[in-house]
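#data-curation
PF: Archiving a pair of folding outputs for the training set. Convention for this channel: one message per protein, sequence first, structure tokens after, nothing in between. First:
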Amino acid sequence: MASSRRGVEVITPRATLCYSHLTQVDDNGKFRAELVFGTDLDNAGLKSMAALEKASADLIEAEWPKKAKGKKTGIIRADQTSTDDDLHNECLGIIRPWSKPRDGVNTIKFKKLPPDKGGPILLDEEEVRDLFYDGCQVIAAVCPFTFDVDGNKGISWFLNQLLFVADGEPIGGGSAETDANLAAACGRDIDEECAVDSLL
């Protein structure tokens, strides 16, 4: 793969976490997740989605000026995925950010909101395993980067940080192990408190 160019870090809208490998790498040696953005985003969520799309478009233009047509944006639409369920069939978009360990260490920062108005709490590996599951609601800090593999060119995403926002419908039989304080924290309006911009 040719050297890649990085874009600016972006905070995603609220998403459903799917097909995650957060504490153990997948078969390709990556920590990864699929983030599915629903069609029910509020105004703040729609602005975050627009920022995600702009970060991708800006990086494509910077890397391939005047030749941007046909480059993969890194944002998958509902009609472009082979996953056939209501979540994927009715989504606004999907991204699949990932990270590789550095010196054997997972560099993704995992966080949750405390029960009070304080800033996000950094989680250790055991807490991540207990809290995050496929189907929970998250917000992520991601960074686009360009790729060029055998003529296949476009944008992919690094996963820098992941914030647990709320429980959701478990996918694939997963379950959440949370406490009463976390449930109270997840009931807050994150956008209103501006926690997302300061946390991630």
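PF: Second:
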Amino acid sequence: MPALNLENLDPKAKGLRLHKHDAAGNLRACELIIFKNGAAAINTVLRRAAIAGMVKCEPFDESPNFFADVYVDEQTSTQTILLDQKSYSRLKNHWMRCKLEPFQ
């Protein structure tokens, strides 16, 4: 398994919000999931997602199709984690079940 660089995960992290670009190119966000055990729980679900696909907790230049924003509270995002379709799907549908938010 490739290095995830989860040591770069914000230790104050409390939640994740998944995002993806749909077939029409629209950015779709999922509901924010706040974890009771914070960074430790986020670390666990990201490691589990990495079994299915790519998870990178490091700066990146490309415009990703799948990613997760890390939140320290319900209003503040501190970093972005790069995902692929498989890891996104595993998170969304298994490890942190969440719904896509409706278009605004």
